[in-house]
Design a protein that fits this description.
The complex is a heterodimer of chains A (about 200) and B (about 300).
Chain A (H helix, E strand, L loop, with lengths): L2 E4 L5 H10 L5 E3 L2 H6 L2 E4 L4 H10 L3 H9 L4 E4 L1 H6 E5 L11 E6 L10 E5 L9 E5 L4 E5 L4 E6 L2 E6 L3 E4 L10 H18 L1
Parallel strand pairs in A: 1-2, 1-3, 3-4, 4-12, 5-6
Antiparallel strand pairs in A: 6-9, 7-8, 10-11, 11-12
Chain B lengths: L3 E2 L2 H9 L5 E5 L2 H10 L3 E4 L4 H7 L8 H10 L4 E6 L3 H9 L4 E5 L20 E5 L2 H9 L4 E4 L9 H18 L6 H8 L3 H10 L5 E4 L6 H9 L4 E4 L1 H4 L4 H13 L4 H8 L26
Parallel strand pairs in B: 2-3, 2-9, 3-4, 4-5, 5-6, 6-7, 7-8, 8-9
Chain lengths: ~200, ~300
């Protein structure tokens, strides 16, 4: 499986090393040609407004959107969650997302940087062990469609959700050195989705 | 589930999210919107850009809270603000306003010529300037969660930024090539804590994100700094002191992302109108050089 990390802006390096720790050699995606080489994609943390604008300028926006709606397994953390949401609240005027996940996400819902925090969360991958989760100016999920599975929540706000092919977290597992979420994406989301296509 | 705010990981992680981006100086809400529309990853709210501070002289201080709040209300991207070196009360004020990052900055007139702010004391993260590795590690030891090379602010002359990036990079490469038993003396020479020196020697990079600042005025300047190993770029006077700020801002964002693609940098450089006029650092009398503030 060839996995790409969208590399226009944000904590690309951290996602690349988290994927490498899961035995994947990811490539950085900055151009449409690179996108067409990958089977699955990771949308990093960063500024969602900047990333979506750069996608539009460099001709990646529509291709990524088409791949996602065509079933390409995709994982987004923080800004990546915003980019995967069908609907966003507190957005910059005219801000666009790839969509694909039937959720409504509120940007910076947990507050400004002074409210950023870390905590242990229960992630529904079958393990009893808690995951240390880092939330940075993080969004939360305000509404979920009927096909959406909530995998983790903080104070009753969903912070990790998935559909058949898409996974999104409000927090940044790429910052902690614990690769469970990346492994979950590869093993439980991407592999089954790609098997099905075959 | 206990939530912990202001941890090292939360502070340093915030800077990781800014990587590959451009942070722009803005003096009002209108400029902040232009910066956000151009794709800035954050804005630095201040009353006068460095070029004006330089031209007008006098003591430069923290900005008016009203002005910072207007900028916070105008944009959804992070808002940073500057406090004077050592002025921990200005920093407390900025934290209470909920700014996303504080720049303890040599661009403002220092409040303390011996001590910097004890940045561990704060929930809000700090970025500090550095001209060499020892200075960067001293700031990190005081709690800085992000470093920017200083350059010479308000000049539009990129030579000092270049010099500082080369210096920091060169000193890191030197540490990486040393035997472990040589790092004690290296730490003494750098005037930096041994533990941090060892960490840098092993990792081959700073333990925090390294941006660059001071004198960047064109897309090619931004790309140059990225190719010197910067994680991202601060542009101060370079944008809003130029002929066409919106277009120049967007061009600098493109060149920062595609710094290693000269064709993109070339396209971004076309038809931008006048760059800021600029001052050669060599023509600046030594007492007027901001990079020498901080130690």
């Amino acid at each position: 499986m060839k996995v790409g990390v969208l590399a226009l802006q944000g904590d690309v390096r951290e996602h690349v090393s988290a994927l490498a720790a899961c035995g994947i050699s990811p490539i950085e995606v900055k151009r449409p040609e690179e996108l067409s080489e990958v089977d699955a994609l990771v949308l990093p943390g960063g500024e969602s407004t900047t990333i979506s604008q750069l996608c539009e300028i460099f001709g990646l926006f529509e291709p990524i959107k088409a791949r996602i709606s065509g079933g390409m397994p995709t994982y987004g953390s923080c800004a990546g969650m915003i980019l995967l949401a069908d609907e966003i609240l507190d957005a910059k005027e005219g801000q666009k997302t790839f969509g694909g996940l039937d959720i409504t996400v509120r940007r910076n819902a947990f507050g400004r940087q002074v409210d950023s925090f870390e905590t242990d969360i229960d992630f529904a991958d079958g393990s009893d062990e808690l995951i240390r989760a880092v939330f940075i100016r993080a969004p939360w999920v305000e509404k979920t469609g009927s096909e959406i599975q909530v995998l983790a929540a903080v104070d009753a706000h969903p912070v990790a959700v998935r559909s058949q092919t898409l996974l999104a977290t409000s927090f940044h597992p790429e910052l902690t050195g614990d690769h469970r979420i990346h492994r979950y994406f590869i093993e439980q989301v991407a592999k089954p989705a790609l098997e099905k296509v075959k | 589930m206990s939530e912990v705010k202001g941890t090292g990981r939360v502070k340093r992680g915030m800077a990781e999210m800014l990587k590959g981006g451009v942070i722009m100086d803005v003096v009002n809400a209108e400029q902040a919107k232009i910066a956000e529309d151009a794709g800035a990853v954050a804005v630095m709210a201040l009353e006068r850009v460095p070029a004006d501070i330089r031209a007008q002289g006098g003591v430069a201080r923290m900005s008016d809270p009203d002005m910072i709040e207007k900028i916070q209300a105008a944009v959804s991207i992070p808002v940073m603000a500057k406090a004077r070196i050592g002025h921990f009360v200005e920093a407390q004020v900025l934290q209470s306003l909920g700014v996303d990052y504080i720049d303890e900055s040599e661009v403002l007139t220092p409040a303390d010529y011996e001590n910097h702010i004890d940045k561990w004391d704060f929930t809000v993260p700090f970025v500090c300037g550095a001209t060499n590795l020892g200075e960067a590690l001293r700031r990190i030891n005081e709690g800085a969660a992000m470093i920017r090379s200083k350059g010479e602010a308000g000049t539009g002359d990129v030579s000092n930024a270049m010099q500082h990036m080369r210096k920091i990079g060169g000193e890191i490469r030197r540490l990486s090539s040393m035997r472990e038993d040589e790092l004690y003396v290296a730490a003494k020479e750098l005037q930096a804590p041994f533990e941090l020196v060892k960490e840098v020697a092993q990792a081959g990079k700073l333990p925090v994100v390294l941006f660059t600042a001071g004198g960047i005025a064109t897309p090619a300047d931004a790309a140059l700094m990225m190719s010197m190993g910067a994680d991202g770029v601060f542009i101060g006077s370079g944008i809003f002191k130029s002929g066409n700020p919106a277009q120049r801002a967007a061009a600098c964002v493109k060149a920062t992302t595609f710094w290693n693609d000269p064709k993109v940098v070339a396209d971004a450089s076309r038809g931008l109108g006048d760059a800021m006029v600029g001052i050669n650092v060599a023509d600046l009398p030594v007492p007027h050089r901001l990079a020498d503030r901080g130690w």
